[in-house]
What we know:
Blueprint: H1 2-39, E1 44-50, E2 53-59, H2 61-64, H3 67-84, H4 99-103, E3 105-112, E4 118-131, E5 134-146, H5 156-170, E6 176-182, H6 185-194, E7 196-199, H7 210-222, E8 234-236, E9 241-243, H8 266-275, E10 283-290, H9 292-302, H10 308-331
Parallel strand pairs: 5-6
Antiparallel strand pairs: 1-2, 2-3, 3-4, 4-5, 6-10, 7-10, 8-9, 9-10
Helix pairs in contact: 1-5, 6-8, 9-10
Amino acid sequence: MASTDNRTPASRGSRSLTKARAAFDGLRSHGGFWLKALSQPTIDLTLRTQAGQRTRIVESPGLSLPKAELDALVGQLRIVAAKTLPEESLTYGIFSGEPERLSRAIITLISEEDSGRPIAFNALSVMDVTLDGEPTEVTHLGLVMVDPDVRGQGLSWVLYGLTALVLFARDGLRPKWISNVTQVPAVVGMVSDTFSDVFPSPLPGARQSFAHLQLARGIMARHRAVFGVGEEAGFDEARSVITNAYTGGSDALKKTFEIAPKHRDAVYNEFCERELDYGRGDDVLQIGRVDLAGARRYLMSEVPSGSLPALLAASAMLALQRLVLPVVYWMDDTRAFGTLRPRRQESGAAR
């Protein structure tokens, strides 16, 4: 008994030391990730997002990667696509073979850490549109595919939110417009819950502003190819619903309401069943913003709660919102924010 009692404090101390080292390693990994995210002109980051899995985020791979690496990356995406749609093929977006698509894309790829096998990806796209007469960018949440063997393992927080959060942080925490085209109730709910000022959405207070309408019109006029919608597809502006949407290379993604993944909150399932004609092949075009409020919701509700770095990041968000962010915006006189205009325009003329 004496020898057992003597070993117990040591073993407890050893376990505590192991946990502390693991926490430190996690902090160092996440710290390095965010430092790179904020400093790289073109993002190419790899992060261990959960046990046994690594996530790579690559911005503009069509421009930033050598051809051999680009071909290897596209090959990994095709592996996931082949598992997801074994009897179908996609011909739009990153699978179209058009260099412009890969130049404007941001790829989030999840792979098994040991084998390197790709298991899921999201292909975001950056679209140029006009808002109130000024050029602006909308980040389209893009095509998401998950290997059927790993579905239900909690990958959505990486595929839908992590990259948007990285882009938001890299851009100085300035609000960014996002868009999403889907007929899947689970995705409609995820976007409505995660981002701010989302329309259409069944949530109380959701409304279509003139900014929503302008952006939707610009997207439908110039960027249908990004999400595989043909020219013959209609658009109901009042509801922001694309009718007969699966005619531009995305035909293999068309679903019936019965097989479309449902959200845990029935309000989203009822909304999609009411607003969309699944036989015809309708989609909602959701437009919203990623801002500090949305980033905080994402960190607190979507990221696994046991992640210490996530909790620290949430605390940092709160501190930035209350103390630091207004000062940062005030001191940066090179870019517009709200009604504040940059001191110097691109031409160099003072105002």
